[in-house]
Specification:
The protein is α/β, with parallel strands linked by helices. The protein is 36% helix and 18% strand. It folds into 2 domains: 214 residues, Rossmann fold (3-Layer(aba) Sandwich), CATH 3.40.50; 144 residues, Response regulator (Rossmann fold, 3-Layer(aba) Sandwich), CATH 3.40.50.2300. The protein has a 7-stranded mixed sheet with strand order 7-6-8-9-10-13-14, sandwiched between helices. Strands 2-1-3-4-5 form a 5-stranded parallel sheet, with helices on both faces. Strands 11-12 form a two-stranded antiparallel ribbon. A hairpin with a 2-residue loop joins strand 13 and strand 14.
């Protein structure tokens, strides 16, 4: 059976707000949440008083992105809980710091918690690949707002979904923008070796064709970028694409400018954060192009930052399943898989692998020493 329901309609069932009510508080480790009332209301009484979970970075270098996601989740839950006084849904937050080494232990906690009926996350690709089998084998439905590695949805994990375009979509759009809009003739591609980073960088390399002049890899935490700068300059590149996160991206952009590189610096959504400019410095960051498979929230949206709208939409899909009467993991997963609607982040429907069927890639620009997060350019 195919359900056709707009997220905006689901959200309309539960009106505005920002902070999560008392039924959903947690710490940065395993989290805790009061069970609230389980006495019916318009939603399924079997899920009232239960919780959604979030798994992702809340602290560390990527913590700001995870906090953006939680903001979107909490907004959706606040709206729902305000509308359904007798059916409160809580949130348990699990801070992985984005680490594929930390996430599996947290995944075990999540699947062994009978109060959790769905997962928003994981937030990052490495931790998704490290935990997907655990969630699949336990049958826990999940929707990631931000994990983009292409191979995640090739594992056969039928409980795993994402409301964001994958790295193939972003990488192809980035390569096309560099060669068509920028007019780059020689592009040098660098990544940091992580699952997300390699996946995005490899798609860019494949999509560049003859415009790919060379490639290199650095390490997470590396601060000396001189070897990479030397290779870029020797290649004669007029553009550099970096697959990774904002800390190393900022250091690399800074080192390139200090080394005399005059071409375009581009990176992906892992770098699309104001901290990129802080790390690189305003002068080195100026003119940088940062792509992302996510646009900015609407002006009147009650949460801010990259992935806030995707997290809000993912939460409302779970709440839509609850409103529709789903109460078992199988019923919730069936609802998600057959869902079709218009979310704040855009149109949402899933293919047979859990990938979103339509996505738009955006280019964000550093101008006048600041990352302009409000006026990106759609490039796909």
């Amino acid at each position: 059976m195919r359900f056709t329901r707009s997220i905006s309609v689901v959200a309309g069932l539960a009106l505005s707000g920002l902070a999560l009510t008392a039924c959903g508080s947690s710490d940065s480790g395993g989290g805790s949440s009061s069970d609230g009332s389980a006495s019916g209301g318009s939603a399924s009484s079997e899920l009232c008083g239960k919780n959604l979970a979030f798994l992702g970075a809340l602290t560390g270098d990527a913590g700001a992105l995870g906090q953006n996601m939680v903001g979107g989740i909490e907004l959706a839950l606040k709206e729902f809980n305000d509308k359904n006084a007798d059916c409160q849904i809580g949130l348990k937050k699990f801070d992985s710091q984005g680490s594929p080494d930390t996430a599996p232990g947290l995944a075990t906690q999540i699947v062994n918690d009978d109060s959790i009926f769905g997962l928003i996350g994981p937030g990052f690709s490495g931790e998704s690949l490290a935990t997907g089998k655990t969630f699949f084998e336990k049958g826990l439905p999940s929707i990631s707002p931000s994990a983009t590695n292409v191979t995640i949805t090739q594992q056969g994990w039928t409980t795993w979904h994402r409301v964001i375009g994958n790295d193939d979509a972003q990488g192809e759009a980035a390569a096309n923008y560099l060669t068509t809009d920028i007019g780059a003739k020689k592009v040098f591609v660098i990544d940091d070796g992580q699952d997300y980073s390699k996946g995005l960088a490899n798609t860019v390399k494949e999509s560049l064709g003859d415009a790919l002049v060379d490639s290199d890899q650095i390490s997470v935490g590396q601060t000396d970028m001189s070897a990479a700068v030397t290779k870029v300059k020797a290649s004669g590149a007029d553009a550099v694409f970096y697959g990774g996160y904002y800390t190393e991206a900022g250091l690399l952009a800074k080192a390139l400018r200090q080394g005399g590189f005059k071409g375009t610096f581009m990176s992906g959504d892992g770098s699309e954060d104001p901290n990129f400019v802080k790390v690189a410095g305003a002068d080195a960051a100026e003119g940088a192009v940062l792509t992302a498979p996510a646009g900015p929230p609407p002006a009147d949206f009650g949460a801010s930052g990259l992935y806030a709208t995707q997290s809000y939409d993912a939460t409302n899909i779970f709440l839509g399943a609850l409103e529709d009467g789903a109460s078992t993991p199988e019923e919730i997963n069936d609802f998600i898989g057959s869902y079709s609607g218009d979310g704040v982040s855009g149109p949402i429907a899933f293919d047979e692998n859990g990938d979103i069927t339509e996505s738009t890639i955006y280019a964000y620009f550093v101008k006048n020493g600041e990352l302009d997060v409000e006026n990106p350019k759609p490039i796909s």
